[in-house]
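Ticket #469: bound-state structure for F0G.
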Amino acid sequence: MNHACRATYSVDETLVDCSKCGHLLDIAYDWSRVPVPGSLKQFESRWSSRRNPLDFSGVWRFRELLPFAKDEQIVTIGEGQTILQSSAGVGKYAGFQTGKLLLQYEGLNPSGSFKDNGMTAASTHAHMVGAKVAACASTGNTSASLAIYSSTTRLFETIVFIGSGKISFGKLSQALDYGAKTLQIQGDFDDALRQVRDVCAARGIYLCNSVNPFRLEGQKSIMFRVLEGLNWEVPDWIVVPGGNLGNSSAFGKAFTELKELGLINRIPRLAVINAAGSNTLYQLFEQHKLRWNGGRLDEAKIITDKFFTQMDADNRRASTLATAIEINRPVNLLKCLRALEVCDGVVREVSDEAILEAKAQIGAGGFGCEPASAASVAGAKLLREQGVISPSDRVVCILTGHQLKDPTATVAYHSVDPARLSAAAATEDDAYATMLRKAGVTQTPAANRPIVVENKFESIMQLLDRIGC
Ligand code: F0G
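RESOLUTION: The complex was predicted; output attached.
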């Protein structure tokens, strides 16, 4: 259904935007026809029937809350076995009382990122409509996820569009290894997404980016599992990195529906965190005061048109070491504004330096994540310092992708000589220092530098004495 003109389409159509008004579509349910349990706790009965793949899946064990497919149509590869974790060190680092900061570790999905929550739903819909070829544009994780669903299920062929240069090797290697046809567009992610949307429309290829409303249905389950981890209590805050804004949009929809269904009694606040080098949402929401405004979007259209026209005129391109969220034209902008309204949300930007420091703290706590994910903890820390979140609030940060996705950023942070980060020390031969310097990183206080030692037993023993091991 479309929120603006209220046009409706049948579930077996493959549209992503409304053919009448052009806005993205939402999945709307007639809840009176769905056997929704009377309480969220009733979903716990599925824990004892985990041999059924639908009950094993962390997405589909909540299938009454995304009831667009029949059981036999569902495509699952065991996604969503993720849980809420706590790390005393990370909580302290971000300024919270013990046990108040929690980490929803989505890196444990089959392809290593939260995308599998959405891709199981998009693959299910692709299967329902008999799609033979599916495609997406990606900063890396969406392509890895689509590729794994395609290779394990063999239901459809996959083509992924990636921008040039920025994709991290962990993610590129996944798409290649899983056998996806990989098109490297000579442009960035925003270019690749524009192209794939046109190509899919022209060729009748099934589009799996988060403009696809079924993707977002699957991503709602991240919030269901957060509630499950809290014994069905609602946290005070959800903090999530913002890229194409699919997650934040899905989370807002999840809470709206749960409240409508009487399954929760209040909605948590939402904080969406941009990297400072790709901060369209931050600029529009916090500086230009762009709002959902109950769905009356005439003013929003004027603000966004002007903003993007200026962005094009200045040839401004997104740039951050958190390459997963290096996006300047977030396609789910309006849906995210709706989520921010429903959740009384805020938006912040954090520097690459803050992201990498938070990432090192998360890693030291045992939950390695990729840079984009760490924006959530860096954002929670900032909001704590600003007094927006209180130290006693219960806060859930979403760790969206696994640490092994982007080892380059990790190794650069930990191994670079800090002296090389000053502009004066700029040299051509130190690739890591150059990379960090370009991203504005001036210090690496959480670095765990490798120690070089002679290939001699005595020297190693002396070193161990010196470092107290
Ligand atoms: N974190 C990670 C690890 C991501 O891969 C992405 C998006 C985001 C956060 C942002 O999520 O788009 O829902 O706001 N990655 C996409 C991709 C764009 O192509 O893999 P969002």
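RESOLUTION NOTES: The longest strand covers residues 269-275.
TICKET STATUS: resolved
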